Amino acid sequence: xxxxxxxxxxxxxxxxxxxxxxxxxxxxxKSALEMILLLVTVLLNRVTxxxxxxxxxPASDPNRKKGSRKKSDKPSxxxxxxxxxxxxxxxxxxxxxxxxxxxxxxPKGQYTExxxxxxxxxxxxxxxxxxxxxxxxxINENGQCFIAPFPDNVTKAVQYGNGIxxxxxxxxxxxxxxYNRIQEYLTDQLGMPISEGSIYNFNKQAYEKxxxxxxxxxxxxxxxxxxxxxxxxxxINGKRHWLHGTSNDKWTxxxxxAKRGTEAMNEINILPRYHGILCHDHWKPYYKYDCxxxxxxxxxxxxxxxxxxxxxxxxxxxxxxxxxxxxxxxNEAGGLLPHEEAEKWKIQYRKxxxxxxxxxPPPDKPKEVKRGRIKRSKARNLLERLLDFEEDVLRFMTxxxxxxxxxAAENSIRMTKVQQKISGCFRSTEGAKIxxxxxxxxxxxRKQGVSxxxxxxxxxxxxxxxxxx
Length: 469
Description:
With 469 residues, this protein is of the alpha/beta class. Helix content is 44%, strand content 9%. It is built from 16 helices and nine strands. Strands 7-6-5-8-9 form a five-stranded mixed beta sheet, sandwiched between helices. A two-stranded antiparallel sheet has the order 1-2. A two-stranded antiparallel ribbon has the order 3-4. A hairpin with a 2-residue loop joins β5 and β6. α1 packs antiparallel against α2 and α3 (162-174) crosses α5. It starts with a strand and ends in a 9-residue tail after the last helix.
């Protein structure tokens, strides 16, 4: 590895050689210097981690450069199959402004009407709308008063309507605006001051109204042939918690919990009832459930890159290239390889792992018998996973709906990280639950072609979209 054009590996190796050759040095000092070199190596390995050889996000890469793109043969601009978004005239404009000709500017003569040339300007009018309901009162000859019934949703002398509630929850949970930003927006744009308490209450109302959706979502995921699972750390009032995400191409479910493992998964109650194919990143608690597993090869590619760059394991670079070629072959075949072709790839996979066993052997057994598993290097742990879980690593070749990676799960929880960057943390567990349920609903609607605005409007009308199965 190089840092500021200095070949650090060569420098450390040279220092070790000099230290080993030195005879006029006390054992204590020699041991201390060896410890310092070890610490330097460990720290350098951490410094050289990036998004390509670890799970660190791309934004954390030092001096990050955009990857070069291959020049396409296609012409620039929209392609033939591309659906454009150019403005088109509409048949029923909201306002019509007639522009008359000043006849004084015309040559003398007789003129007849010949229609109009039209041009349309698309704009917005952000304004507050106040609807006053006036219920008729009647009094009979006996002095009895009768009042026309108000609509069921109009219960107070002054209240907020469903439209503004849906809009506020959309801004809060979908656009991730902090409460004070929403307050400023409503005051400046609509002339409608609102308290933080009201914003919170609207979010809570949406959460309660979406209880039925969450139950439906969980049942749909339980019977899905393939689902993705992942978890990420979240901050709730200064304490570490976990957001658990479960999803497929149509449905998304989120849930916050203080635990990361099976205690949380059992409480969510999706995986304990699931018997399809579960895609994940080899977090061991997933293997406690009675389902078929598929491992994320994006994780494997990053770990293989690290093993090559830091541990100089040549087999790791070859395996990375082999997995990438396998994925290309599957994509070229339309998502599924014939059995014979898949077996040929598996033979190459096993042959390469056989070479890896020689280059990266297991650690020697200690002379003293100790309880537990013997500590292994990261490269060896990765190798053993590729050996022991071959079917789970390569399942993407033989089942069309099993993907090469678990990126679908990672993408679904990405906005949680954005929310944490904006707000820092959730103030309470209840706030985290509100975010998870509403965000899961909006993510599901987006997958099924329902806009976030329409989705939230339906919620406050007591309805759900017509979801596809």
